[in-house]
Amino acid sequence: MTDACESCGACCEELEVPRGVLPWSRTFMAARGLPVSPGKVRLECECPHLVDESCTIWSKRPLVCMAFTVGGPACQDVRRRRRPWLDPDPLA
């Protein structure tokens, strides 16, 4: 975890899941106002382990969290939308 991660936590407020993982159709998601992208579903979620913008279970976090690439495209995207006052690239 970088210092920039510890002061952000935006990735813990939403989760992108590959479309094939969930049995929802494009129409079902769109009808419910869920963002629809070609390959992923974005779900709003507020992780109960995020306290004061910091992960309290970092060393034992779930695989979906471990797979999230700090500074990657998804990281920069969520930071632009949820933390516009921060630099989009936490590694910059």
Helices and strands, with pairings:
Blueprint: H1 3-6, E1 14-18, H2 26-31, E2 40-44, E3 50-51, E4 54-55, H3 63-66, H4 73-82
Antiparallel strand pairs: 1-2, 3-4
Describe this structure in words.
With 92 residues, the protein is α+β, with helices and mostly antiparallel strands. The protein has one domain (3-82). Helices cover 26% and strands 15% of the residues. The strands form 2 sheets. Strands 1-2 form a two-stranded antiparallel sheet. A two-stranded antiparallel ribbon has the order 3-4. The radius of gyration is 14 Å and the shape is globular. The mean pLDDT is 76.
Total strands: 4
Q: Output the radius of gyration.
A: 14 Å
Residue ranges: pLDDT <50 for 5 or more in a row?
none
N-to-C order of helices and strands: HEHEEEHH
Average pLDDT level: 76
Helix content: 25-40%
Q: Per the principal axes of the C-alpha atoms, what is the gross shape?
A: globular
Q: Main β-sheet: number of strands, strand sense, barrel status?
A: 2 strands, antiparallel
Sheet-strand content, in percent, reads 15-25%
What's the gist of this structure?
It is built from four helices and four strands, in the order H-E-H-E-E-E-H-H. With 92 residues, the chain is α+β, with helices and mostly antiparallel strands.
How would you describe this structure in keywords?
about 90 residues; 4 strands; alpha+beta; globular; two-stranded antiparallel sheet
